[in-house]
Amino acid sequence: MLRVDDIQLAFGGVKALSGVSVHAKTGMITAVIGPNGAGKTSLFNVVSGFYKPQSGRVTLDGEDISGLRPHQRAYRGMSRTFQNIALFHGMSVLDNIKLGAHTKLKSGVLSAGFRLRLTRSEESELSAEIQRDIIGLLELDRVQHHPVEDLAYGLQKRVELARALVMKPKILLLDEPVAGMNREEKSEMSRFVVDVRKNWNTTVLLIEHDMSMVMGISDHIVVLSFGKPIASGTPDEVRSNPEVIKAYLGAGDELTPAQKATAGARSQ
Q: Is the dihedral of CA 220, 225, 231, 236 positive or negative?
């Protein structure tokens, strides 16, 4: 579904990404992990079109989208959440979710401004679709009409996921979806991501520091360190990779048994 090939990205003389390639298979969950400053968010910004790399290519479902702007990539089926919550206060949960459907609506500014029949019909159909496919899936029934600012942090993150899902994306980019959550909220979010993949066959690419979530739900993992790929494979393969252990521990060439044990615990 997504191919990111040999991305080179630099800011002045600082290399953020050097020769990074990530291939996300259709209907699979692919995770990108690495220590702070590894280049994970820079990679997401390249994939979603916010950064233009010096070289490399991004292909979505067989189409080269390297030259497309973020909104053009959205129209081709790419949706994204961000590290920091970016919901619209003063609006209900349901209205925030509806905003994610802009790529699916046909009515223009005049039709929306004058509330013409097409706009009213589209909004009615959209509300019914959200109720049917998203509200229940993400267990937002009881809060859908609440002001979004009144929700707990974990629920707000769930609303952001709902807003990204309403366009039924081909690929869903999740930037630290469980950051700041407690254990119960992390477990719920992990379950929701797996349910989305299972029910809609959505391809998922995620960045996450919580290794329990990554190892528990990912089909494939790519590891970055200082902007370079150092490992990729299944969770079991990545968990035992010496280069990955070194990157996370900052250890030398030789790891003691205690260090290996610590790395293994961190990745589980």
A: negative
Give the pLDDT score at 239: 84
Do 103 and 222 reside in the same domain of the chain?
no
Check if the beta carbon of residue 232 is closer than 8 Å to that of residue 223. yes
Span 38-53, pLDDT tens digits: 888 899 999 999 999 9
Query: Taking the CA of residue 261 as centre, how many other CA atoms within 13 Å lie in the half-sphere pointing to its CB?
Result: 3
Q: Dihedral sign, CA of 105, 108, 113, 116?
A: negative
Residues 159-168: pLDDT tens digits?
999 988 888 8
Instruction: Kindly give the residue spans of alpha helices, DSSP state H, lying in the chain.
Output: 40-47, 70-75, 93-98, 109-113, 117-130, 153-165, 183-200, 211-217, 235-239, 242-249, 257-266
Q: What is the DSSP string of 241-259?
A: -HHHHHHHHT--SS--HHH
Both 186 and 153 in one domain: the answer is: no
Number of Cβ atoms within 10 Å of the Cβ of 117: 9
Looking at the domain assignment, is residue 253 inside a domain? yes
Residue 121 pLDDT class (50, 70, 90 cuts):
low
Instruction: Flag whether pLDDT at 258 surpasses 60.
Output: no
